């Protein structure tokens, strides 16, 4: 266990898998010793004090309540009770801190809907996978993509999935008009009733193309940042660089990757490099700034990365070399 990961955990800046890793470690003797030392240090600092006129909590009963609350999540519960007798009063207040940490973790997991029964579909680099959701909606995942969802959706409740990567959704319309929500990594969401659309969601950026129907896109956490999309609309959003735009495109071209093809329509080589990085996990270097801005149009096979590189090289007169996971693109 690294101190860096522990610090990110207490700052609530970890992924769900990392949170579980930390919680599992807290249940070991080493983890218990770390907690005791950390909490003993924190609660004995000069600037820390308990709430005024507050009695020390009953740690045992409080921890039992925490266990009961967390049982449904099947999350590891920290039990520092065996150390209470030698840490005394400060440790009883430390137990409050531990309880808050656990409950904060539960809230974090709950926000992401990371229940133990959730299903995860993960594709490898360059691989495409298809799956059917509990409501009959169909999803095609591009390479290096991850989709999380509950295996059971009940009538009258919102259908929710969490996407990290690229996917094409064909959403079924339900009799009770239940909403369908796609959560993206940059805290943007897509809300639909019944439609077909392509989503690229990587880190802070997202690209959404509507093929059919109607969707409402919420960008970031601000409620007012929403847009009603029409078929043929492409919306791009990068919440870190504050880059946003909407344009009209051929939606079939944007989702052609499902059929083993890549269709470029005025696509810059910088964008092509990003596609290769996202889908195949490689680093692409284009040293010439003008070449990065050069746009290309055409269709090339998408069976493998080597096929794509050969197609780019022959169709657009480029010199492409590859060494391990690094690709260099130059003019011929």
TrEMBL record:
Residues 261-329 form the Protein FecR C-terminal domain. Residues 122-215 form the FecR protein domain. InterPro entries: FecR, FecR_C, Ferrdict_sens_TM. The chain crosses the membrane at residues 93-111. Keywords: Membrane, Transmembrane, Transmembrane helix. The keyword Transmembrane applies. The keyword Nucleotidyltransferase does not apply. This is FecR family protein. It comes from Spirosoma soli.
């Amino acid at each position: 266990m690294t101190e860096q990961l522990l610090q990110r955990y207490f700052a609530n800046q970890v992924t769900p898998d990392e949170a579980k890793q930390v919680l599992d470690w807290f249940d070991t003797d080493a983890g218990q010793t770390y907690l005791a030392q950390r909490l003993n240090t924190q609660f004995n600092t000069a600037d820390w004090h308990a709430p005024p006129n507050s009695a020390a909590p009953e740690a045992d009963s409080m921890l039992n309540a925490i266990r009961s609350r967390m049982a449904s999540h099947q999350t590891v519960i920290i039990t520092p009770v065996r150390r209470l007798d030698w840490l005394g009063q400060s440790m009883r207040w430390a137990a409050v801190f531990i309880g808050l940490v656990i409950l904060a973790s539960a809230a974090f997991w709950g926000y992401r809907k990371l229940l133990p029964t959730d299903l995860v579909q993960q594709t490898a680099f360059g691989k495409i996978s298809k799956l059917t959701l509990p409501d009959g909606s169909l999803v095609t995942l591009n390479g290096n993509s991850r989709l999380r969802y509950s295996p059971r959706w009940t009538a009258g409740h919102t259908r929710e999935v969490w996407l990290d990567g690229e996917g094409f959704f064909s959403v079924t319309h339900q009799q009770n008009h239940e909403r369908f929500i796609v959560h993206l990594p940059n805290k943007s969401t897509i809300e639909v009733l019944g439609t077909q659309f392509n989503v690229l969601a990587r880190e802070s950026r997202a690209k959404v193309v509507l093929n059919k129907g109607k969707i409402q896109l919420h960008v970031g956490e601000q409620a007012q940042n929403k847009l009603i999309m029409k078929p043929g609309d492409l919306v791009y959003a990068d919440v870190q660089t504050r880059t946003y735009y909407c344009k009209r495109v051929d939606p079939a071209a944007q989702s052609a990757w499902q059929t083993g093809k890549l269709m470029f329509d005025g696509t810059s080589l910088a964008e092509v490099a990003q596609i290769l990085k996202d889908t195949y996990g490689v680093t692409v270097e284009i040293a010439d700034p003008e070449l990065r801005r050069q746009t290309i149009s055409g269709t090339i096979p998408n069976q493998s990365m080597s096929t794509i590189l050969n197609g780019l090289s022959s169709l657009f007169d480029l010199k492409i070399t590859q060494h391990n996971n690094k690709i260099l693109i130059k003019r011929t």
